[in-house]
Task: structure prediction
Amino acid sequence: MRHSLSKTFSFLALSLSIALASCSGRGNYMAFTDNVVYVKAFPEEYSLTGAEEVDAGVLGALSVKIMDSLLVVGTSGDPAWKIFSLDDLSEVTSLIRKGNGPGEFLSVPWLSQVEFYEEDGKTYCYLLEFSKSEMYRMDFSESLKTGQAEIETIDTGLPYPSFGLVYVGDSTYYCRVFADNSTRIERVFVRGGETSVPSWLDEINSAHVDPGVDFNLLSAGLSYKRDRNLIIETPVYLDNINLYTLDGSFRKSVNIGRRLSDIDDMQELSIHDRTDTFSGACLYDDFFAVLYCRETSMENYYGKYGEPHIFCFDYEGNPIADIQLDEHCTDFDFDFDGGFLYASDYERDKLLRYALPEGFDLR
Result:
């Protein structure tokens, strides 16, 4: 397999500026305008080429997740998760049945939005069933043994619709819900049917669209780093990531480029001319990585794909590395132990694998 990688240390060229003064009232932003880091370069830059297509017999590959020695592929099929051994890509099992019955899913969560965790030597994950407004816990370790999803229901009757929902613990949830006749998306805590709005998120909660405008301009992926009590929001159409703790002790926006995306400007564009930005986020022990690819739906329709970058940051929002790929993709994960980067592209129904050079490890 042919591959190449170039690496540039550009610490002197690293250009960061922190917005010390709020620009409230001068734009319609979904950002913490009193604490924005504008990233125009990264300390390390890489270019990966020569990806090979993984022939695992998967149709409709949507997302990927590396779990120790396993490759989990989220698909459009039924069962929705196909699980393979990373050693030889042989299929281990399939999980997550589709349907309206007990333990079945009408809407399968994206793998990057699923929180996996260890407890008493076993692996578990939380699964939100968006369509049923239910939260489940799956014993992933036991499911691998039995070949079926071992699922228990944690809660029912959760807010619907909710745009990203995190189980915080002790019957408490954090999520994003509609507000003001679907012109805003508000971040709230929910416990025992009671809803509260954290005041430290007022600024990003104030982002809005005009009545009748597509609310998806406010859409964002929501990931939770539990051991840091940290939320990572990755907007679909904006150039900034929002980082904040659920106790309000830390909040920061990290913007790619020199200026924040103004929602007032963006809603003047047709839906086909709006630029997609972030899709997919992976959380590791000491850093997180996001997939960034600027392209409009019209460009995507005609196969004029943008150049995908995987941007890596520490949990303070400081940039670590920019990894540019030569193949379009919509999700990814690193297999650091095996020396590969796996990527999926649901637009082209492809599962790809890049070889990493010996010793490459951002952990």
